[in-house]
Design goal:
alpha+beta, Fumarylacetoacetate hydrolase, domain 2, 5 helices, 13 strands, 19% helix, Fumarylacetoacetase_C_sf, lyase, Fumarylacetoacetase-like_C
Length: 247
């Protein structure tokens, strides 16, 4: 099944038409989801650069591999296919300084944060391989890396441990016009919540957080679709900004 689903998803990534769904190749378990994500990564010659994740209260948690090739510094140019739009989300992300190997007891928040070496603003680039992502199962969405395309990484923020990260004002602008400006907005309530969940969740599927990997913790702005030939800025007041040039 991972091979069949990977065939379908890779065909779209290589320029084929978007899918209505994965049909008979659709994963039925989370283990199958992670196997599909890893098969797509293997066949594209990539390596894990990190993960995107969310653990909203009262709703199913989700996570996806981010390929290292899609992690780019603020100010990078991102090409949007002619006639297409791309999804943009402003988020808070972390980089691990030490890994969190599997163990019998769950890691506490303090233990996970002790392994974090940096925090920074990011813009997630979102491209679904489905015609309508809302029309497929949650497992199919995760198999498609929850529509992840890339991550634009802002500068590391000094003193982030002393900040109230859940209560920062977030502002996202496109083409010089503000699209969203509001207080807070992390879907899990606080960016630490999905980070700790992920550290304890991955080992069940043969994975773990490694030193150098980046974890982004969910959109504070919601998903907005924009066209090419514009500059997008995602920022948190007092926490810095990430910028991407859409070509």
């Amino acid at each position: 099944m991972p091979q069949s689903a990977a065939d379908l998803l890779l065909a779209v990534r290589q320029g084929g038409p978007r899918l209505a769904g994965l049909g008979a190749a659709a994963p039925r378990t989370e283990a199958e989801v992670w196997a599909i994500q890893q098969e797509v990564l293997r066949r594209t010659g990539g390596r894990i650069g990190g993960y995107k994740c969310a653990a909203p209260p009262g709703k199913p948690a989700s996570a996806a591999i981010m390929a290292a090739s899609g992690l780019r510094p603020s100010g990078s140019t991102w090409t949007v296919a002619p006639g297409e739009t791309i999804g943009i989300e402003t988020e808070i992300a972390f980089r691990l300084g030490r890994g969190l190997p599997p163990r019998a007891t769950p890691y506490t928040q303090a233990e996970v944060l002790d392994c974090v070496e940096a925090a920074f603003p990011v813009i997630e680039m979102v491209v679904s391989r489905y015609q309508d992502p809302k029309a497929v199962t949650p497992e199919e969405q995760m198999a498609d890396n929850v529509a992840h395309a890339g991550l634009i990484i802002g500068a590391e923020v000094p003193g982030w441990r002393e900040m109230e990260l859940a209560a920062l004002t977030v502002r996202q602008s496109c083409g010089g016009e503000v699209q969203v400006e509001k207080l807070g907005g992390n879907p899990s309530g606080h960016p630490f919540v999905p980070l700790v969940w992920l550290a304890n969740h991955l080992p069940a599927f043969g994975l773990q957080l490694e030193a150098g990997q980046v974890v982004t913790t969910g959109s504070c702005t919601g998903l907005l679709w924009v066209g090419s030939h514009q500059r997008v800025t995602g920022e948190f007041l007092g926490f810095g900004a990430a910028v991407v040039e859409l070509a």
